[in-house]
Design brief:
alpha/beta, Lambda Exonuclease, Chain A, Nucleotidyltransferase, domain 5, 5 domains, five-stranded mixed sheet, 35 helices, 26 strands
Amino acid sequence: MKITPAVFEAYLKCPTKCWLRATGEAASGNTYAEWVQAQIAAYRETGTARLVAASPQDEVALSPDTENVKAATWRLASSLAVLAEMDSCALESELHAVERVPAAGRGKAAQFIPIRFVFTNKLGKDDKLLLALDAVALSKALKREVSLGKIIHGDDHATLKVKTSALAGEVRKRLEKIAALLANPAPPDLVLNRHCGECEFQARCRKIAIEKDDLSLLANMSAKERQKLRNKGIFTVTQLSYTFRPRRRPKKQRDKREKYHHSLKALAIREKKIHIVGSPELKIEGTPVYLDVEGLPDRDFYYLIGLRIGNGESAVQHSLWADTVADEGKIWREFLAILETVEKPVLIHYGSYETTFLKRMCAHFGEPPEGSETANAFKKAVNLLSVLFAQIYFTTFSNGLKEIAGQLGFQWADPADSGVQTIRWRNEWDVTRMPLPKETLFTYNAKDCEALEITTQKVVELCQPIEQSADSVPNDVVHTAKLKWEHPHGFKRNALVSPELNAINRAAYWNYQRARIYVKTNRRLKEALRPIHCQSTIVPINKTIDQPAPEYCPQCHSPQIKKWGSKCSKIVKDLKFMRSGIKRWIIRYRFSRFRCTACGTNFTPPDRPWSGRRYGPGILAFSVYMNIEFRLPLVSVDQCLNSLLALQIPLGTTGYFKAYAAEMYRDSYKALLKRLCHGQLLHVDETKISVKGRDAFVWVFTNMEEVAYVYSETRVGDLLQDLLKDFKGVLVSDFYAAYDGIQCPQQKCLVHLIRDLNDGVLQRPFDEELKQIVSRFTALLKPMVDTIEQYGLKGRFLRKHIVSVSKFYTYLLNAQFQSEAALKLKERFEKNRDKLYTFLENDGVPWNNNNAECAIKGFATLRRLIDGVTSEHGLRDYLVLLSLCKTCKYMGLDFLDFLRSGEKDVHVFAESRRGRRHRPSINEPIVLAADEIAQE
């Protein structure tokens, strides 16, 4: 394998170009590339002739023999062919010229300096690397280091000395990469870049890229961004278009520039509609002057200024031409003179090239008078590209003027014309002074100005406010503010890629499993799922109770007591629960004060049936029930009680009810959590919540009958380690790494895995290896789900599938995957092998974590009311009551009945209700205390 400077130079521009040149691919034609090659050859010939003419004839060697270069006596050699064997390849180079400097003294070797000719006035790093390549090849042939080289370049044949030893290491690395590239018979991944316009393979590569819908068609996307998308399985523009999500812009960022969205550009291309982000602004108050400048970048020479003044057929075109660099000042003054004749000129250009032009010309040849309309036009010059960038997305692969104007219907004289071609045309005119290249430049420049006019008019039209243009917005224009916004992580039904996965997912829904699956292994659930029957009761409407006198003094137990003072009364507001509703219920207690004649103690009857506060236990139970079960805000509960029942409760009172109830049931909650953490089966999940603007987390622990919510400031696994340190049952969870630290049998949620597999296939639709793994796993899991449908979660029926699991892992072990996604999925299966199929060997263990997810949804609906506004203390109270509420639901109990019963343990309450599943009669005693609910 031989690497030549032409192949090395091609690699510096593009690996695909390098591979095509090395394999002898026929060029598809590019007049600019052909012109560049002709310029390189001509400049090398001229440069060599200059060096030869300046050297004595007896010290010049033309194409000398390279077998014994060390013994050479020449001072200058041209076209020196060198063949050097590198570690990974053979390097073949024909050095433009080599200068030999004789030894400075006895015992010292002569110095050889490679020379390279570059026709451009400005040099880049690639030119220095090519010189360093010559030095590396020469050093291999001489078997000594060549540390210095020369580049002769530009119109003045300037000489630049380059320390090639500093670049030798980089050259060797590039050679190794080229050798690896050419060793592969298949071409590298095709990537379009900025060099394509100068490449002889441009037409071939662009055709292939369009056929593949390659991401590199999007000109503004960097290689790093492309690689990031490919790692996610996004390889085409069409795939990228489906990833765009319209998002609300935060207030603090509304004054900042919009971020460019490649996904939105891809969406515009796919839908063939112009997409607008935000509210772009462009107002032209004056006479538009469309500016386009042509120049030679390597000489910083502006030779043609194009001006188009006005719009439409009345527009006037000016073309200001400079024959030489000395004429730049002349055309600049002509340019200023023309602007002075325009009323309120508004300069409009496209891109930063004209911005640089205005700054440099002002610095070199003078600015217009301060305060003049021309000076104001310079200060307020409109760069149209900056107006539409990141805000207006045309249906084009790039934001180039030629491409956008072409999409709007504008046509150039020759579709192949481009900015780099103007360099060739100018050079032809400099050499021949024929009128044709000059006329071609004038035509091209005028067309650019006209295209700029058309594009500007379209942008002005698109910048109209949405309110003004809502009735007349064309069908091919879309404002992203009106696109439907969907949260990517909300609860929703998943669209699965195959009917088998759909059937498996359907069998995992919580309600379905509870009613059809769990009842087959849990007898209590059968009773819990039976409907509750209510019995009619006769209730009184109002009541006055006279408290009897005590028999003895509570202090000294003396029977010598007598009434003391006037009679007292106490009114308690409460609720009466009836078969078909509730009503306000007020009880008046009448009692007397007494005095003990033996010890002198004053007292009231100690056995009082009222709580000593204004509100009875029914109001407390009802307010907590409405807040937790129906997620009604506490303020709304206050308003409901006042407006419907006229209880005249001060706003905020139900907040005290909630706090009191949480404290009363806290021991029951702790016992519930302890019972869960020492059981035989536990489902765990977590979710985020904002507490006064600070992120916190809520964990849910649940089994088939009980639920407990736990607050945590962070998502780290310390809480799990503390609560589950003695847990020996089966833990069902998702794939969060914190669960792996729990030392117990585990079952990972296969529904989570199915969702990940489904998303992976959707994101990588062309990855056949990934599809094959998903298909195999689907075939493995479907029979398991069918067995569960028939027999429930019973290990004696499920153990037969263990053989299929072993075969699946044997397939994974023997398969040789090349896809990165397939390799990662294989690693995931192997890592979690012991945690994916625990349900096959244990009774009553589900294969998914939907039990915990259902409990999380119960909290998520409540979170909508309290997110960001609740305090940590208030959230902890919510979780205590919500845990009891969900546990009642899981056990088939009515949460309101539990609150009214006065019982603090849910299990004791459940046992008391076995065999009589109806609401308690209003005449049943309610012993719920409310002494510390609110202040008098």
